[in-house]
Amino acid sequence: MSAANHALIVIDVQNDFCPEGALAVAGGSEIIAGINTLMSETACTVLTQDWHPSGHSSFASSHAGKAPFDMVEMPYGPQVLWPDHCVQGSEGAAFHAGLNTDRAQMIVRKGFRPEVDSYSAFFENDKTTATGLHGYLQERGIKALTMVGLATDFCVAYSALDGARLGYDVTVVESLCRAIDLDGSLQAARVQMREAGVTLA
Ligand code: VGL
Ligand code: ZN
Question: How close are the terminal C-alpha atoms of the chain, in Å?
Answer without folding.
Answer: 14
